[in-house]
Each structure stands twice: as structure tokens, then as C-alpha cells.
Amino acid sequence: MNKKQDIIQAAAHLFAEQSFEGTTTVQIAKAAKSTEPMIYYHFKGKDDLFTQILERASHEYFSRLKRLPGDTTTQFEKIANLISLHFYFVREMPNETYLIASTCPARLNDPASICKKIVEQQRFWLTDYLTICLEKGVREGEFQRVPVSPTVNIFIALLNGLMHQRGLGFEKVEGLREETITFCRRSLVKKEVTNRKRQP
Amino acid sequence: MNKKQDIIQAAAHLFAEQSFEGTTTVQIAKAAKSTEPMIYYHFKGKDDLFTQILERASHEYFSRLKRLPGDTTTQFEKIANLISLHFYFVREMPNETYLIASTCPARLNDPASICKKIVEQQRFWLTDYLTICLEKGVREGEFQRVPVSPTVNIFIALLNGLMHQRGLGFEKVEGLREETITFCRRSLVKKEVTNRKRQP
Amino acid sequence: MNKKQDIIQAAAHLFAEQSFEGTTTVQIAKAAKSTEPMIYYHFKGKDDLFTQILERASHEYFSRLKRLPGDTTTQFEKIANLISLHFYFVREMPNETYLIASTCPARLNDPASICKKIVEQQRFWLTDYLTICLEKGVREGEFQRVPVSPTVNIFIALLNGLMHQRGLGFEKVEGLREETITFCRRSLVKKEVTNRKRQP
Amino acid sequence: MNKKQDIIQAAAHLFAEQSFEGTTTVQIAKAAKSTEPMIYYHFKGKDDLFTQILERASHEYFSRLKRLPGDTTTQFEKIANLISLHFYFVREMPNETYLIASTCPARLNDPASICKKIVEQQRFWLTDYLTICLEKGVREGEFQRVPVSPTVNIFIALLNGLMHQRGLGFEKVEGLREETITFCRRSLVKKEVTNRKRQP
DNA sequence: CATGAATGAGATTTCATTCAT
DNA sequence: GATGAATGAAATCTCATTCAT
What we know:
Strand content of chain A: under 5%
Number of strands of chain A: 0
Oligomer: homotetramer
Radius of gyration of chain A: 20 Å
Structural class of chain A: mainly alpha
């Protein structure tokens, strides 16, 4: 179980850095301090290795999404949690995040690929989660009167952009998570409410 | 000059869909209804073809950035223009946008690649543009007191996310551009200012 | 069209000598005085090359079978013709004959293989041809009262055995074709008839 | 001694079905419900396993040949016995028969292989046996005046064809053995003799 | 006897690139 | 400009064999 993990780690790293096709099995073997046949001992092939990496990563990602608390006092807290989750995920699994956000969209044409499944599931889940938040928040007067559907998409784009941090050199920026949340709060939450909360 | 264009178009499309490494010269030739040797007649090689596509695209992108008006009445207008520019660019050159946003980050390790140049230049330019906007806007009381550096990065992430529309299935969403601008305005521009502007 | 023929020739020879799996593409390329990629230029792969060889061979074989004259004066002539045909075929296309007779039966488990098709077609055709001959010959008093079905199978076994000459070292045996025919005539054709024919 | 037998059985079956080269040690191990290292515990290697299978089979085959009664009343009985022997052998050891008849001829080029030994020995033995039978039978007036050498080869071809039953779908044909003998008797044995034998 | 893991050698296949025409 | 054929280099994958336990 040791070598297999090494291979997965090495491959995830290389796939994220060089793309799936741009990474050779020799490179993976070398990076994992193993040999090519070992890859084929543990995996059915390069595709399978890729699939397993993405399956692990997406499993972790979606299980985190599902574990998000449903009983927050405000709707915005839910959105803040969602943003934080993505920041933490990027930090803990940078390679995997990058694979999901970047490699997957490029592979949507192959319907057999897990990529299609992941991207669709992610889109569906985020849309669902955000739609409910926004509708409730607007209805209950917590949020401004924003049009739900486009706003949902703006959030998805933002989260997706944040998942690309690795390629954008955001690692060193301090306080980005908190500020992203604040940025969104200012846009969504009604002024009066915010002020009242902060003033006392 | 006809065939060359065909090749560029075909290649841009395939590179965006399958990544650079995942696309073969045979595929390009076939998609361009031409032959492999023709590719080598017009380009030095696959790398050169890729480079030329990105050069054209980035040239267009940066020249649009540079043509952004510098004499707007408000700072937010500048930001709105920047957002709009990205929406228009994505719509007009979807493949190229995708290449810049998605393929490039994966190729930052190769220092010879234009990718590095483009990504760095883009990051530099956007940072510069947004920093000036935000500092001025904050200083002049148009914007709320946002911390400049993180906010700049949030914008970059958002723009980057928007450039991935192709992979996110945003094509059908109506009014996304306008709503993105509104979303950012609500977050940045001081209420009083906005209200004053709109009320009279 | 030159190199392609060379490859086919070389491959047919090697496949017959060493079996399909026992023959490597390097060997084929070398024997054809060509290179491995050339094989893949002309054929989809080793399987395809094998398939094309067998298709050519079986096409030739079956078209010869179909060209057998139907208007012979005696039924035995038909059988003699069938035997001769196999001798000539073995002599002209020894490798291909060997492939059909020897490689094919070993590949009957793969239903996608042409092998299955060829073997079944051959069996069907020979059975048909021989059954008609024998039934007619028996009915008309030319042949002795032989049970048709087993006799058909004996002929098929005999023809199959003759197709293995290459592996049995029969090349040098003189007069084998004629004697095979005579052997079968003696067994099938009624004495009186034979005598009458020969005596006058 | 249990596992070793399992391996031999599994290997014989697979070799017959897929050829030696087309069968992998993993397949053998799996089919024998054992593991690869077990194969190497019992055999020196794949070659050795193959050799042992063929040695057993050919030993059994040749010892049956040698046990054929030499004191029959007629020469044709000897031939009938030879034919029967092959039928029984095929039925009892179908895989092994197939290996001898089909795999061996394809491996005649490798002089180290037992295949060469078996094929040559078989050919030699059958030629010897049949030649003596035929010469004696002709000389003593039991047989018609057939040319010995070609007729020997016809028999060898026929026996060889019968050994391929497995690949020809003869399993279901009833009475094939008896009819094969009758077929040959009619061709060889003088009418008068036959009649005399049968009439009283 | 038994097995999971490992490996060197080599087989099949792909691909960017070029040559001859 | 254009193309069919060719090729060197390398990528993916397989497999007989062995090691450590």
C-alpha cells in the first residue's frame, strides 16, 4: 500500500503540472521512485490511474460539500462556509483541486470519463446549494433583491477561479479567504442588517 | 492564406478541447481538411503552431486591455469595462480564451513557452490596472475601504473563472455580464454614492 | 503498394511459421525490409494485418471453391476436383493454407475473429458440397451405399490433414494428389463401374 | 502433487486454446486457482511446463502406439487399430492431442523444442508401421496393388486431420470411427477377400 | 507450499517530422 | 502548394521471472 500511494501522489502532481497527456508513465515511475510495471501492477493503465486519482479527490470534495452544516443562523453563513471549504480544499489538495478544475473541463467530450460526471455533479450541487441559499436569503430579507440564477453562476465562476489559485500565484496572498467572504457579503447582505450586527 | 487560417482554426479548437499534448498533428490536418506536411509548410512545427495561436490570441487580448478607456468618470466604470471586455473576448474567441486560461497555467514550468509570458503579463497588467482603480476609488471615497491587494486577487480569480465559461456550461445564462458588474458594484461602491447617483 | 505487399508476404510467412502471438512486429518489419511504423501506416495494427492476410487467403480459397465446375459427368469427378483444388491451393499459398488450417481452429473462442467465420464457412461449404455429391452418387448407383454424414466428415478430416502438409513434410512426396484421388475412388465408386470405365 | 496437476491441466487447456505464446503465466495461474510463483516452484519456467505437458502426452501417445498388437490375423486389422487408437486418444486427451497435432508443427524451426522430436518420431513411427502393413498386405494379396509410399502419406494426413477434430466440430458425429475404418477398408482390401470374409 | 510485490526485457503502438515527387 | 510514404524516437503496456516473507 506504500508504493501505490507514492504512485498516486507522484501522478497527481505531474498530471496537475503537465496535463494528463503531457505526463509519461516513465516520469510517474521515476517521481514515485518505482518502475513502470509497478504502475500497471496497481492500476489497469494510465487512464485508470488518472481515474482513481480523480475518484478519490472528487469523493473527498463531494463528501466535504455534503458535510456543510445545514442549520446556520443566516444564509450568508452557508455561502461563507462554501467559500471557506474551497479555500481549505485547495490548500490541502492542491494537485487534485487543479485536476478537477482544469483538466476535467477539457475532457468533457469523452462521456466515459469521470470528468464529465464530476463536472456535472459539481455544477448541479453548487447550483442547488446556492439557489436555495439565495432564494431563502432574498425571501427572508437577509439579502438584497438579487436575480438568483445569474448570481449563482457568478459564484460558481468565482469558486472555479479560486480553485485555479495554483496556476495564478495566489499562494502568498494573505487574508484572501476572509476578504473573499467579506467581498461577497458586502454585495449580498442588506446594509442595514450588516450595520446593526456590527454596531452593538 | 486560406489553408493556414484553416489550420489555425482547427488547431485552436482541438487544443482547447483536448490539450496541446492530447492533440495530434494528424487530427489537426484532418480537421483542417489538409495534410500533415502542409502544417510543416506553414509552421515550424506543432510547438510553433501553438505559439502562433497563442501569440495572436494574446496579442488581441492585450491590445484590447490597452484600449480600455482611461478617462472614465468613475473608477468603477473602469472595472465594469474590464469585466465586459472579458465577456466579449470569451464570446468572440472561445477557444483562444480557454487556451489562455486553462492550458497556459499548466505550462508554467516550461520557461521557454509563451504561456509563462502571457500568464505573467496578464497577471501583472490586471494587478496594475485593478490596483490603481481600487486605490483611487478608495482614496476618492467612491469605493468602500477595501484592502487593495486581496481585492485585486479576488477580481483576478473571478475574471479567470469567467474565462472558463466554455468548460462550465454558462453559454445559455442570460444577463450574466450585467449581473456580474452589478454584483461587484454592490460590493465596492459606497451605498450613498450609488443611491445619490440613482435617485435624482 | 509495394511495401504493403512485402509486409503481407513477410507476415504471412512468419505467422505460419511461428504463430500469430509468437511473431513480433519487429520481425515482420525486418523480414519485409521495412520498419515498424510502416506496418501501422498500412494496417491498423498487428490484428488487422492478420485479418487482412486471412481475408485475402479465404477470399481466394472460397472463390476457388465456388468456381468448381458443377456439370461434371460423374459425382466422383467433383470430389476429385475438390481434392485437387486443395493440393493446388496448398502449393500456391502454403503459408495462407497453413494459417487457415492451423491458426484458425485455435482462435475459435474469439467470436470477433475472422477465423470463426472462415472455419464455419469452410465447414458449411464443404459439408454442403460433399453431401450433395455423395447423396447423388449413391442414389444414382455411382457410389457404394455409404452413410453420407460420416463420410462427409471423413473427407473434411482428410482435406484438413492435407492442408497441413507444410507441417508434415509432404513436400517431396510425388504423386500424392493423384494417389489421394485414387484412394478415395476405390473406396467410393462401385467396382463394376470403375472396371467398365477402365477396361474398354 | 495436487496443485501441480491443476497447473498442468490448466496449462494444457490454455495452450491448446490459445497457443503457447498466446497464453500467459498469469492466465495459467488463475485457471489453476494458484499463483505464478507456484508455477516456478513446480517447473523451471513456462517452456519447461510446456515441455512436461508434451512429454507426458507424447509418452502416452507413443506407448499406446507401441502397445498396438503385432499379431493380428489381417494387415488391415492393424490399420483399423491405428485409426481407433487415434480416435480414443483424441477423446481421452483432447488438449494434448491438439497440442501435438497443431502446436508442434508450428514449432519445428526451434530444434531444441520437443516438438521437433515428437513430430519426427510420430512421422517415423507411423511411416514405419504403415509401410510394413501395406507392403505385407499387398504382397500377401490382402490389399489391392497400392503404391506404398503415397498411401502411407494419405493415412498420415487422414490421422492428422482426425486429430484436429476439436477444431472441426466433429464431437457430435456418431459412428465416425467405425465409418473411417470402413472407408479405408473399402479402398484397400480386395473385394473378393472382403466378400469371402463376409459371405459365409 | 504459498503469495504480494517487484523488475528487466521487450512488445505494440503512436507521433512529430521529413522525403520524394 | 500539395501529398503519399517513410522514419526515429519515444510512449504505453505486457510478461516471464524472481524476491522477500
